[in-house]
Amino acid sequence: MSYRLPRFACFARKTLALAVIGLFTAPGWAADVSTEDRLKALEARLDAMEKENHSLKQQLQQTDQKVEATGEQMEKIATTGNSSESSWADKTKLGGYGEMHYNSLDGKGGAASKDEIDLHRFVLFFGHEFNSRTRFFSELEVEHALVKDKDTGNAGLGKALPGEIELEQAYVEFDLNDKHRAKAGLFMIPVGIINETHEPPTFYGVERNPVEKDIIPATWWAGGAALSGRFGSGFSYDVALHEGLATTAATNYRPRDGRQKTSEANAKKLAATARLKWTAIPGIELGGTVQHQSDITQGLDASAGSANLYEVHSVINKGPFGLKALYAQWSLDGNGPKAIGADKQKGWYVEPSFRLSEQWGVFARYNLWDNTAGDNTASKKKQIDVGMNYWPHPDVVLKADYQRQNNDDGKNQNGLNLGVGYQF
């Protein structure tokens, strides 16, 4: 092997050298034919490469178009929620508020003393935006933490418990255009200051003020339909047709006891409400509401008839200074209300406040109200509240106030109220 391989390698090198020499020394016609063939082959190869390059360019262009279309679709999904998977998460909102109170009140003149802690309310909001023009909103509330007929616990109190589960709002709203909208369902009546905005961090005092609570009566919701909008310079309006109150002599025709809460509500006589607000100057709101109901008893009391509610208010916030004022009055027709002085039910309050800082605020409020203002008995109720709010966060509040009553009937409750509240 060591002898033959070198001789074979030498032979191969010689043969290759002769072939190369022959290639360049062959006859001219053979060289011409060979060159022409090679040129044709090269040209064919170039054509094939050009076609292949053109095909690759087309594929690349199509890929770019697909990528761009995919990006546009992803952006559309993110901004408009057209994807069924992202729609619910992006367009359904959850919120709520709640508050717990401690009341330590000393009863005078026959009024009961009060020492209790109460989880007054726990509320959840659920909302959904179907599209840019149509949305849904609801409010579910549990009051006083517990709902059952009577106490069955170890305390053995044997008393009826005041807890309630209430659906206070559940309506669908439609944008008619950029200035006007309509809604139908269960909604808050457009009246007063706190009836629509009553989350604890938004107002002073542990308890809601007694004038709006007993005269208006807040919080007050009803089933019906409404139109809302804005016009001119800072003006807005609300008009609504909805279930009315159903109050009788058995409850002294008190509006608060006549709320039907849209639970198989008697709709024989509907109520109509109209409100006008002006907010052209930042920090100032002036508003007024009128409501008419042709029969405040829903046909249950022949001695009573139509009723009208009138309400005006102002809210002023300038720097650290705040001022709220409200007046409300019911006028009831019929001999029944007039006989007990309930034909005129009215009240007003004024509340100055001052923000010491972003977290601390102090207030005072004078309340005067009367649900039997037309009679000759001592029926006026007067209450002064002074206190402070502390906001560790804008949506969380700690409250403390002292209330002092000086009612004409001598039945007073004086003492301390503490509270904690939140919204989200």
Topology diagram in text:
Elements lengths: L3 H22 L2 H53 L3 H8 E17 L5 E18 L2 E10 L20 E12 L4 E9 L21 H5 L6 E11 L3 E9 L26 E9 L5 E10 L13 E12 L2 E12 L2 H5 L4 E12 L4 E11 L10 E13 L2 E10 L6 E12 L1
Antiparallel strand pairs: 1-2, 1-16, 2-3, 3-4, 4-5, 5-6, 6-7, 7-8, 8-9, 9-10, 10-11, 11-12, 12-13, 13-14, 14-15, 15-16
Q: Could you describe the 3D structure shown?
A:
By secondary structure, the chain is an alpha+beta fold. The chain has five helices and 16 strands. It folds into two domains: 4-77; 100-116 and 173-423, Porin. 22% of the residues lie in helices and 44% in strands. Strand 15 (396-405) and strand 16 form a beta hairpin. It is elongated. The protein starts with a helix and ends with a strand. Residues 1-32 have low confidence and may be disordered.
**CATH-level-2 architecture of the largest domain:** Beta Barrel
- Helix/strand class: alpha+beta
Count of the domains? 2
Give the CATH level 1 class of the largest domain. Answer: Mainly Beta
C-alpha-based Rg, rounded = 41 Å
Biggest β-sheet strands, sense, barrel: 16 strands, antiparallel, barrel
What is the succession of H and E elements?
Answer: HHHEEEEEHEEEEEEHEEEEE
Strand content: 35-45%
Q: What's the count of strands?
A: 16
The CATH topology assignment of the largest domain is: Porin
Please tell me what the overall shape is.
elongated
Strand order across the largest sheet: 1-2-3-4-5-6-7-8-9-10-11-12-13-14-15-16
